[in-house]
Structures are given as structure tokens and as C-alpha cells.
């Protein structure tokens, strides 16, 4: 009868061998999946964010080759910003205040294209902003910029009340502690009910940027071909959404669960454009200076915020 030189039965040796083999195979499989995923362009998506509309419509049409793209969904921007800064995702769409705050802190993202324009509104049960208006808004975001740059000058007798968080703002409006709400689409429509829009940000700054497409520098250098393909997909979707309004209205109704009336209103007052325009750069410079002067973010060179590798609009 056969036996090992250490006195261990052969069947136990074989059992140990197969356990080690299976463990090694599992490790290799996990590493293969992990390495394969890092080669893909990893796109972070914030649920119900209007800036993602052309990506969402492309996703629903199965236009993305899943050999080259992977997607991760987030409930809000905080975790997404952390992940893109740590190279756990490659590309995302972020609002300007989030972009500037992150770049000023660690400079690990770049704007590779503009995307969503406009889309900020004030709703109220009043017909206009007047001396009886108390307008709530979020401090240190784009609405704050519009309040101080335009609205306080145009409406010096109205009250403009800053809030630190969206939940505080929403609660104050629900309790009628304020009678007007300055907020972004599509979220503003959940408050509208018997209210009406009395101001759009586009009235004072047409085609101002609201959300931009950003990427971390590693992805820009290592995944340029796939990023370029992504921009081509987005641009094709933008054409279908903006040149055929019914496409925009239908997509917004389904994705953001809006009524046809609200979706139509959103389509008329929100735009999408690929590229980095002079208007984009001018607005971002003004907004950056605004936040720097408030000491919300440290002084930084916002001209270095962009990577023009993928844009048709060169500086």
C-alpha cells in the first residue's frame, strides 16, 4: 500500500492539493475580474441627476459596450467624489460647486467637457419676487452666486435666506417658513404642486454651465480612446434630445418621474452642449472668485482645471 514519507495518507495529500489549487484558481479569477474592470472606463452615475440625462438615455438604449465600460450608481455626490479622487472610478458628471471644492482640495479631477447648461429656478406661490418674498437657497452653491450677483441687486427689498443643507431648505419650504425656493431641476418639481416658477437662472446668464463632465488624470492619460468614444455617444444623444423636444420630454418623464407638463418645462429651460466654451470658462472663473472671496475654498489657479484633449473648443 502506498503511503507518504511523512506518514500522511495519500488521499489527504490529494485533498490538500485540490483545496490549494481551488483557492489559487479563485484568487486568479478575482484578480482577472479586477484587472479587467480597471481596464474599462468606469463611469459613476448619481441617481436622478439631470446632468446625466444623455448618459442615461444611451444606457437604456444599450449603446455602451460592456467590454469597455462599467457603471456604478450613487445616491449622492459625496461618495462618488471620494471614489473619483481615489481612482476608483474614472468619469462622472458633477455640479460646479462640487468640482471646484474637490479640485481646490486635491487637484485630482479635470473638466474634460461642459455638459448641462442652466436648469436653476425659483418657485413660489407669489407671481413675482417682491418685498414680501423670502427666498431660500443653498449657501456656497450656484444659487448662492446668482443671489449675490444678480438677485439682491434686482430685488433689494426681498429677503434671501441661506441654508446649509438641502434637507433644511426643503423642510423650511414645506413648513412655509419661506415662501420661495431657489433650487435645481428636476428636484424642484417635487415641491411645485400649487406653486409656479417665477425665475430661471438663464434670464441673467444664458447657457451658464451647471454640471460638467470630469475625469481623473490617470484615466485621461490611460483611457483617452474610450473617453473620446464616450463623448461621441453623449454628443449623439444630445442631438436627439435637443433637436427633437419630444425625445427630451419622454426621457425626462420616465427617468425623473415627471408629469408631461413638468418635463416639457424642464426641456425648455435646460440645455446640453459638449465642449468647453468661452461662456463656460468665464462663468467658472466668476464662480471660483466668488467662492474664494467667501473663503469657502482656498485660492487656486482655475485656469488649470481643464483638460482640452477631448474638446472641439480649444482655449
Layout of strands and helices, then pairs:
Blueprint: H1 10-39, E1 41-46, H2 53-60, E2 69-74, H3 77-85, E3 91-95, H4 96-106, E4 110-118, E5 120-124, E6 134-138, H5 142-154, E7 159-163, H6 166-174, E8 180-184, E9 196-200, E10 209-215, H7 217-222, H8 224-243, H9 245-255, H10 260-269, E11 270-275, H11 278-293
Parallel strand pairs: 1-2, 6-7, 6-8
Antiparallel strand pairs: 3-10, 4-10, 4-11, 5-8, 5-9
Helix pairs in contact: 2-8, 8-9, 9-10
**Helical residues, percent:** 40-55%
**Strand content bin:** 15-25%
State the distance separating the first and last CA atoms. 82 Å
Count the beta strands: 11
| CATH class division of the largest domain | Alpha Beta
Low-confidence runs: 1-5, 20-25, 27-35
- What is the N-to-C order of secondary-structure elements (H for helix, E for strand)? HEHEHEHEEEHEHEEEHHHHEH
Overall SS class = alpha/beta
Please report the number of helical segments. 11
Total separate domains: 2
CATH fourth-tier homologous superfamily of the largest domain: Periplasmic binding protein-like II
Kindly report the average pLDDT value.
Answer: 89
Radius of gyration: 25 Å
Major pleated sheet: 5 strands, mixed
CATH architecture of the largest domain: 3-Layer(aba) Sandwich
Which shape, going by the Cα principal axes? Answer: globular
Order of strands, main sheet, comes to 7-6-8-5-9
The fold-level CATH name of the largest domain is D-Maltodextrin-Binding Protein, domain 2
Describe the structure.
There is one protein chain. By secondary structure, the protein is α/β, with parallel strands linked by helices. Strand 6 (134-138), helix 5 (142-154) and strand 7 (159-163) form a beta-alpha-beta unit. The chain contains eleven helices and eleven strands. It is globular and about 55 Å long.
Amino acid at each position: 500500500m502506498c503511503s507518504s514519507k511523512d506518514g500522511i495518507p495519500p488521499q489527504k495529500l490529494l485533498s490538500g492539493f485540490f483545496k490549494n489549487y481551488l483557492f489559487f484558481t479563485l484568487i486568479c479569477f478575482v484578480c482577472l475580474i479586477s484587472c479587467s474592470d480597471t481596464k474599462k472606463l468606469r463611469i459613476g452615475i448619481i441617481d436622478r441627476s439631470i446632468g446625466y440625462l444623455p448618459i442615461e438615455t444611451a444606457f437604456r438604449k444599450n449603446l455602451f459596450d460592456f467590454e469597455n465600460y462599467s457603471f456604478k450608481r450613487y445616491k449622492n455626490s459625496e461618495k462618488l467624489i471620494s471614489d473619483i479622487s481615489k481612482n476608483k472610478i474614472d468619469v462622472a458628471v458633477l455640479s460646479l460647486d462640487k468640482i471646484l471644492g474637490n479640485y481646490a482640495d486635491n487637484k485630482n479631477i479635470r473638466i474634460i467637457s461642459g455638459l448641462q447648461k442652466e436648469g436653476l429656478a425659483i418657485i413660489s406661490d407669489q407671481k413675482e419676487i417682491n418685498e414680501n418674498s423670502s427666498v431660500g437657497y443653498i449657501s456656497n452653491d450656484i444659487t448662492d452666486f446668482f443671489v449675490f450677483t444678480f438677485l439682491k441687486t434686482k430685488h433689494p427689498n426681498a429677503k434671501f435666506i441661506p441654508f446649509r443643507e438641502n434637507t433644511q431648505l426643503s423642510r423650511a419650504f414645506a413648513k412655509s417658513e419661506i415662501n420661495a425656493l431657489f433650487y435645481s431641476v428636476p428636484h424642484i418639481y417635487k415641491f411645485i404642486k400649487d406653486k409656479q416658477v417665477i425665475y430661471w437662472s438663464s434670464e441673467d446668464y444664458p447657457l451658464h454651465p451647471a454640471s460638467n463632465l470630469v475625469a481623473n488624470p490617470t484615466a485621461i492619460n490611460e483611457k483617452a480612446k474610450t473617453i473620446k468614444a464616450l463623448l461621441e455617444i453623449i454628443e449623439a444623444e444630445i442631438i436627439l434630445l435637443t433637436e427633437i423636444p419630444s425625445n427630451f420630454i419622454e426621457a425626462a418623464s420616465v427617468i425623473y418621474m415627471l408629469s408631461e407638463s413638468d418635463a416639457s418645462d424642464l426641456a425648455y429651460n435646460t440645455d446640453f452642449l459638449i465642449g468647453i466654451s468661452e461662456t463656460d470658462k468665464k462663468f467658472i472663473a466668476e464662480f471660483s472668485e466668488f467662492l474664494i472671496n467667501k473663503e469657502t475654498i482656498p485660492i487656486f489657479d482655475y485656469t488649470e482645471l481643464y483638460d482640452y484633449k477631448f474638446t472641439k473648443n480649444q482655449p
